[in-house]
Structures are given as C-alpha cells and as structure tokens.
Design brief:
The chain has two domains: 3-55, no CATH class; 84-152. The protein contains eight helices and no strands. The protein has helices spanning 3-12, 21-33, 35-55, 63-72, 88-103, 109-118, 120-144, 146-152. The two termini are 60 Å apart.
C-alpha cells in the first residue's frame, strides 16, 4: 500500500469512532516503515486532541445573571403588561408611505435630469440609499413589534 492511498483511508476513517483491528494493523505496519506518514499521523493525533480539549473551551453561563438584570429593570414589560410606544397600525401606515415615496422618487423631473446627465454612477448610490432605508425601517419595526408579530403569525405559544 502506498502512502497516498493509506493516508486517504486514514482521513476517511477519521469520523468513525471504532476502527477495525485490520485497519489499525495496516496503519501500524505502514508507519513502521514510513517516517513521513508516521509524522503526519502524529500531527493528526495531536490536532485531534487539541480540537477536543482546547478548541471549544467551556463557556460560562451568562443567561441567568443577564435575565435577572433585565427582570430587575424598572421599565421591563413582562407577560400580560401592554407595551407602550407607537402602535402596530401606525408603523405599517408609515412604512407604506415611506415605501411609496421612495419608489416614486424615480418619476420626478429633477431626478430624470440628474440621472440622464450622471448615468448609472448616480443610480447606484440612490439604490443603496433606498435599500438601506427600507432595510433599517424594517429591522426597527420587527425589533420593536416582535411579540405582536409572533402572535399574529402564530409563532408564539
């Protein structure tokens, strides 16, 4: 068995936990005569041990203390308390107005003159600006009304 085919078999068998006795004997016999493969297997075993112990260190549990501080906050809205702020309907109406005004900007006379003189170098920043405004508004809307949206879409138990 040459080095390449032996190492291919080793790499294929990496995910399997119990290696067969015949395969282990083949590998041991091969690395007895091949120093390069023996060094590569040594490094591979060192990498495996490092990945199991050092790669994903145990992380502390921050969930409990953070949630306790949130519950202790003065303005926290728990279950059953109504949320204060802009209503869901007002957000939707405002979003529709913004979307309508941003989509009709392309039909203004000043826009047509500037776009004709500047070409596509003007349309790129306009498109990016419109995309950023719509994305930002959508993110703030979803973030501020996540509970209502999840109940409306029946995602909340």
């Amino acid at each position: 068995m040459n080095c390449r085919s032996m190492m291919d078999k080793v790499y294929d068998a990496l995910g399997e936990k119990p290696l067969s006795l015949g395969f282990r004997l083949q590998v041991e016999l091969h690395i007895l005569f091949c120093r390069r493969c023996a060094e590569e297997l040594r490094l591979l075993e060192q990498l495996r041990r490092s990945r199991e112990t050092d790669f994903f260190p145990e992380s502390p549990n921050f969930e409990g203390p953070i949630m306790e501080k949130i519950y202790a906050e003065e303005g926290y809205c728990g279950e059953g308390e109504p949320t204060r702020g802009v209503s869901f309907r007002s957000w939707v109406i405002t979003g529709c107005v913004i979307l309508f005004s941003l989509s009709t900007v392309f039909f203004g006379f000043d826009f047509i003159k500037i776009a004709a003189s500047q070409g596509s170098s003007f349309l790129l920043p306009v498109g990016l600006t419109i995309g950023c405004i719509v994305t930002g508004y959508g993110a703030v809307f979803i973030g501020s009304h996540l509970k209502e949206l999840s109940q409306w879409l029946r995602l909340h138990e």
